[in-house]
């Protein structure tokens, strides 16, 4: 392993923020991961485990060891007439994995095309888009217990998935590192096209016969039209979660804001789009120096180049406060502040 000192983390976070790591190492196998964790020179240092860097807001230099998880590999572990289980290493790029499944006609995650990040990070916050979440296709994951250095297996129930939530963001935060994830996918597709602009986009693409690839292509087209490419403008995709509010609060709000969209969660709770709230609060297209709110999607905070994490954090706090003042709704960040 090549352990480096005072390494810039700018290439390793999609915001393109300049921050340095006191120590940095990339691990390609579970054994390498165990070795670095047992290395006496680093055992007592703080550690940051890095995937694709798409859910991080770096607000300072990292005093400790940054471990880049680069565990690769995709394999079929089970198959019958209708179902296939695919196991992927935590370091696999999520979109590359989705494309592998689309190309092999394995259905279930085509709606999650073009989401940034890695396979290992996907269950951490139960990523989702266009009516599909990781929990819908999740079979199990393997993770390294950072105390015992033993690999443990977590079932769907054990992960305690919620909306952009899992047990790894709460009671098990900082106690495990995901090494692989296994997904159960379908050979016979059940298409989900009701969410967002999928049906409209399919019509514009002149799609007459639905397919896994057509759904994926439509999602990619929508995301590219609305979300900036991190290679061009630094961002982490959706910065805030879509809030879930009591039905009673929603009914009160629509008296003043009759066009407020909503998506029923259950009989007592509805989800409202954070992007709509932020836009109505006047932030869409806002710019302050080298940071701002994206002009096409208010849910995305951006670094135009040269901005820093603390500036973005302060902007996020101003957005949160204005939405709270206007709607009485508190927005929660999807990204992790470091």
Structural class: alpha+beta
Kindly provide the radius of gyration, computed on alpha-carbon positions and rounded to a whole number of angstroms.
Answer: 20 Å
Q: Mind telling me which CATH architecture of the largest domain this is?
A: 2-Layer Sandwich
Major sheet characteristics: 5 strands, antiparallel
- Helix share, percent: 10-25%
- Uncertain regions spanning at least 5 consecutive residues: none
- What is the count of distinct domains? 3
Q: What is the CATH topology descriptor of the largest domain?
A: Uridine Diphospho-n-acetylenolpyruvylglucosamine Reductase, domain 3
Number of helical elements: 8
Tell me the series of helices and strands, N- to C-terminal.
Answer: EEHEEEEEHEEEEHEHHEEHEEHEEEHE
Write down the overall geometry. Answer: globular
Fraction of residues in β-strands: 25-35%
Overall mean confidence score, pLDDT: 95
The first-level CATH class name of the largest domain: Alpha Beta
């Amino acid at each position: 392993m090549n352990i480096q000192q005072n390494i810039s983390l700018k290439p390793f976070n999609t915001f393109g923020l300049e921050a340095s790591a006191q120590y940095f190492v990339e691990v390609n196998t579970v054994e390498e991961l165990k070795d670095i964790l047992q290395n006496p020179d680093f055992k007592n240092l703080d550690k940051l485990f890095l995937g694709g860097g798409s859910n991080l807001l770096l607000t300072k230099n990292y005093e400790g060891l940054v471990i880049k998880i680069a565990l690769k590999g995709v394999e079929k572990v089970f198959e019958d007439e209708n179902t296939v289980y695919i196991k992927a290493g935590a370091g696999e790029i999520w979109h590359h994995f989705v494309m592998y499944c689309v190309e092999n006609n394995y259905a279930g995650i085509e709606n999650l095309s073009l989401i940034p990040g890695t396979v290992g990070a996907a269950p951490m916050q139960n990523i989702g888009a266009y009516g599909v979440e990781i929990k819908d296709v999740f079979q199990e994951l393997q993770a390294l217990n950072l105390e015992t250095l033993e690999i443990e297996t977590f079932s769907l129930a054990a992960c305690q998935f919620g909306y952009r939530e899992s047990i790894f963001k709460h009671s098990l935060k900082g106690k495990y590192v995901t090494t692989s994830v296994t997904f159960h996918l379908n050979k016979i597709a059940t298409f989900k096209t009701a969410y967002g602009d999928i049906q409209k986009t399919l019509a514009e693409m002149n799609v007459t016969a639905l397919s896994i690839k057509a759904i994926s292509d439509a999602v990619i087209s929508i995301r590219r039209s609305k979300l900036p490419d991190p290679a061009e403008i630094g961002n982490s995709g959706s910065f805030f979660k879509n809030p879930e509010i009591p039905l009673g609060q929603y009914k009160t709000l629509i008296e003043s804001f009759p066009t407020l969209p909503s998506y029923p969660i259950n009989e007592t709770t509805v989800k409202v789009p954070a992007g709509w709230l932020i836009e109505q609060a006047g932030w869409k297209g806002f710019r302050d120096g080298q940071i701002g709110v994206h002009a096409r999607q208010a849910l995305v905070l951006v670094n135009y180049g040269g901005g820093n994490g603390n500036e973005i954090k302060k902007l996020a706090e101003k957005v949160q406060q204005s939405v709270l003042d206007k709607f009485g709704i508190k927005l929660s960040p999807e990204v992790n502040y470091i």
